[in-house]
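Observation: inputs received (chain + iron/sulfur cluster).
Thought: call the complex predictor directly.
Action: predict_structure
Action Input:
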Amino acid sequence: MKFLTNLGLYLHIPFCNGKCAYCDFYSAFTNEELIDSYLTALIREIKQWGGKINRPIDTIYLGGGTPSLLNHHLVPLLKAVYENFNVLDNAEITLELNPADNVLEILKNAKTAGVNRISIGAQSGDDNELSVLGRRHTAKDTQTAVKAARNLGFNNVSLDLMLGLPDSNLKTLKNGLDFLLDLSPEHISAYILKIEENTKFYKQKATLNLPDDDAVSDQYLFMCEYLENNGFCHYEISNFCKENFESKHNLKYWKCEEYLGLGPAAHSFLDGKRFYYPRDLKAFIKGNSPTPDGEGGDLSERIMLALRLKDGIKTEDLPTAAKQKCELFSKNGLAILDDGNFSLTNSGMLLSNSIISEILEEF
Ligand code: SF4
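Observation:
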């Protein structure tokens, strides 16, 4: 009998109540009628895929956009998933929550729907920074959201933070980190601000007082050390957790394990093949098919993803020239080479893209 490996399920909810100044994610403005049509289409895809896939689902991730806007739709949506897929009893089920919204009602619905992990887009603990970012919430809203989640019994809460913000420095970053730590999250995701095209920040770039690359590097290294000193394991370039609270769903991406993503702009890796739904909400509602994106999971792809993780890679399968590069990076303090295992240090993680490309050049 063929052993069926577990699968992750990602559901993309492409709605937001506004556009943040830095964001280029695929999302549309919220509109109840559109949400209804979208959910009908999403449940249609859930049924179709559920009829074809027999593998146990051990993680479900509702990302966006702002999936918490689904609110009372969460129960029927996840019910459709449970009815059509073999969801394991101990599956990790994550909901991204925007603290600007009606968090108490949303969290109650999430609990009823079976969600057991809440990822809150805190981004900063400073109201001025939040306003510059174009966020709709305040620091107090984040505190209220975490408190509500705890009161309802959620014991796996992740908070997002952004660094490299306009006018930021080590002091403002430390304030942001202390704000998060006071809320005792199990997990923190911390991302360096990137100015993407087609965003408000891109147009304002010349007038934003952004820290230079060295200052951003200092912020990143400070944050890594500060969170490690406060009991967090730095398990991936941008992710930190208390013991055993890694994001099981996101680990699938970095470990090159398989997942099915449903919704416009959602990517999948299934039966060795990658494919995605185009960034087109109306086409998804009409029933467009996913676009093939080639084979996935070869050695170079696995190395590229695994080097994001603290655990790193085994060097035994690498070509000799790549092994020599690993030795060089380890001598430069950018990596640790220990008994055939190669992993990046915090400084190396800052340069991960160029280190990974240099190693892959030798394939
Ligand atoms: S950052 Fe999140 S809430 Fe803001 S526009 Fe992007 S997806 Fe929506």
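Thought: report the result.
Final Answer: The pocket of iron/sulfur cluster is lined by residues 16, 19-20, 23, 25, 27, 64-66, 98 (CB under 6 Å). The chain has a mean pLDDT of 96.
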